[in-house]
Amino acid sequence: MVQNEITFENLPKAVAHLVSEVAEIKNLVCKGQNPIVPPKRIPIGIDDACKLIGKAKPTVYTLVRKRLLPCYKNGKHLYFFEDELLAWIEGGKKKTVAEINEEAKAFISEKHSDSSLL
Known about the structure:
Blueprint: H1 11-31, H2 46-53, H3 57-65, E1 72-74, E2 77-79, H4 82-91, H5 97-116
Antiparallel strand pairs: 1-2
Protein name: Helix-turn-helix domain-containing protein
Domain Helix-turn-helix: 46-91
Pfam families: HTH_17
């Protein structure tokens, strides 16, 4: 409810809003759960980023210059977010032999079923 002043005209809306808020609080209390608060994304500096991804500063600067590493620049300083750096690392995953074989089998079976339709 945006308005703090309750008038006779908006009294039903205010009561409905309060009822829904109380129901939500009651639901949380009954479940014994804390309200879900999204985690704060705190930027880290270049030194922490180097430690996190296991690269030297010159390598990180090169990756940033080539726009291969996600970063933010404010003035002369570079900032990074841990979740983005971890996603960058995950993006470089090499497939295992089993994963490659599964993809090959799926590709062959797909092509085989497509050619049988002709």
